Amino acid sequence: MTANLLDYDLEGLVVFCERLGEKRFRATQLFRWIHQKGATQFDEMTDLAKSLREKLKTSACIRSPTIIAQHISSDGTIKWLFDVGAGDAVEAVFIPEEGRGTLCISSQAGCAVGCRFCSTGHQGFSRNLTSGEIVTQLWFAEHFLRKHLKVEERVISNVVMMGMGEPLQNYAALVQSLKVMLDDHAYGLSRRRVTVSTSGIVPMMDRLGMDCPVALAVSLHAPTDALRDDLVPLNRKYPIAELLDACKRYLAYAPRDFITFEYCMLDGVNDSPAQAMELAALVRPKAGEGAWCKFNLIPFNPFPASGLLRSPQAKVVAFAKILSDAGFVTTIRKTRGDDIDAACGQLAGDVKDRTDVVRRISKQRTIMLKPVNEPGMQRKEGVNGK
Ligand code: SF4
Q1: Residue 19: exposed, middle, or buried by beta-carbon count in 10 A (0-12, 13-18, 19+)?
Q2: What does pTM read for this prediction?
């Protein structure tokens, strides 16, 4: 069986090369060709000996999952739907902003946590992605964008693990993929530019701090256990007090960082001034503690099965003001990609029934980028309304 080299971190490639009778530095060369240059053919790798290229052709490949669909929003946000087999599809979303480009990627097909306000959570869980499937979303998007923008330098400056899935429930693959993102021979992203978002799996937060302390965002969404039990069922296992303690322990591994608390604004549920004050009191630094957290308020993206509504903008602004007057850096997330269902909590309509995903997507206003035969991209005709 040929090995897909996108599945390997640098150490894995070293072992692979040694099995082929090659020295360690060959693995570094290969790693750079794959991740820094987006090479898909071994013949492109001109500084590798011809004999090695021939060996690689028979034993390895560089292959990303098929792209089922690609959409560009009127605001420049791009969403890709990747086929990961057996009817499962996952999404990655590129969000261009002034001075930076953020890629939001998925860690699982579906999600078992079942947060009430999350469309992915309502689908249930299908399976964990492999490390290669996680990294490939970045590999594909980065090299696709470079080609289309006709630039050689890096386009994606930030990665957020906020797509489908709870990353800390796919821990081994997550950490391996983070290491590739941070590796100077691959993407060389600084650890502060890679964010893992979790619903609060306390023991795994501790492990992540020790193994790979990237930026951490925590889905809080409620100031009390009673409400959070309802919105984020995992709270019944790891209640707020335990979660906050874990956040503070995490910062011991990530000095001078802040925990970002994500707070999805739900009309009449968690958006009152009294709840904002409760929230501020909950995370107020204790005597001797410096500022340790900030807030990101997320306008809810309604979907029919949720039975929830988006908070009116005036309520969101008032909520933000209370937090900010209490001394917390507070941002209100701009909704991006609304017209292509790429906004937060809207990812992948139905991973079980891909035909339905395709049907749903094909109805959306979709613009295909051209050409579509980018690194590893295999186009499926008949998708995107054609
Ligand atoms: S918000 Fe995150 S953890 Fe919660 S159900 Fe959605 S994908 Fe899973």
Answers
A1: exposed
A2: 0.89
